[in-house]
Amino acid sequence: MKHTEKGVLENSTMCFHTPSTAALQHLFFLNYVGYFHCNSNYRISRNLNEMLEPYLFILVKRGKMQLDYENAHYEACQGECLFFDCRKSHSYYTTSTATFQYAHFGGNLSDYYYQRICQGSRYSFPAHNPEALSSCLSRLEEEAEQKIINEHLISAHLHMLLSLTLSSRESYATENAGRIARCTKYMKEHIHEPVSLQDLSDYVNLSPYYFSRLFKRYTDSSPGEYFMNLRLSHAKMLLITTSDSVTAISELCGFQSPAHFIGTFRKRVGITPLQFRKTHTSG
Q1: Cα–Cα distance between 163 and 43 in angstroms, integer?
Q2: The domain containing residue 107 runs over which residues?
Q3: Please, what is the Cα angle at 132 between 98 and 162, to 5 degrees?
């Protein structure tokens, strides 16, 4: 629907949605979404209010958007984003003309993504994939305008929006990302060997402490957990595609002993290796 708020120019759109109880409990949910063309009269200011929509994501298409938030000032130019918690005091506005897409949303893993994306008070940042983000926002608006609204598709588009944003925020093309990629490759190549945290950090020329923090930033796992999951994944493949014994597979996957392998497998997967083989193979 068209919008006629102060400072909002012709051809701007906004669509409201009231989420169902099921969406509020289980999904990412949308409150409203739109595409605004604005002039210097556009300003939204809100005081602290826990009843407001949780989060606002803005993608600037043209011009500049300003944000006063958390006792600091932020600016987003064309191809950049603003992302903040609307329940806290804030003002966002433009001092000239600007065009932007936006979505107010919450639910599901929104808090997790917000903390990851904005860690270190990074509420303004470049979009390394603005076309993809714009597509997600456009699809959200399309879904919100349907006669029968599919809240599962809305949730999926919001999840994609946040996933793409997090990926670009973590800068997977940087030198540090390259270090983590080399490290995971090293893990796969040495999956049958005992590899320590010191071995891994030395391999990429970092201290164990900094390496551990960096690794978790990119993988959401500690190096030890990630390596263990690689070993378990390799063990699953061997259980299904070979007739090797549990003892042989435990050695091929770098476990200290068959007992350690069986215990770890049962704890992580929920069944023993032989039960897994029986469940996932025929005959």
Answers
A1: 29
A2: 13-169
A3: 90
Domain end residue (candidates: 115, 147, 169): 169
What residues contact residue 278 under an 8 Å CB cut-off, 6+ apart? none
Residues across the chain: 283
For residues 6 and 42, the answer to whether their CB atoms sit within 8 Å is yes
- The b/e string for 128-139 (b: 16+ C-beta within 10 A; e otherwise) is bebeebbebbeb
In a domain, 198, yes or no: yes
Domain count, the chain: 2
Question: pTM for this one?
Answer: 0.77
AA letter at 84: F
State the CB neighbour count (10 A cutoff) for residue 46.
14
pLDDT in tens, 19-54: 999 999 999 999 999 999 999 999 999 998 877 789
If asked whether residues 154 and 48 sit together in one domain, one would say yes
What is the DSSP secondary structure assignment for residue 164, as one 8-state letter? H
Q: Dihedral sign, CA of 98, 101, 106, 109?
A: negative
271 token code pair: 């069944």
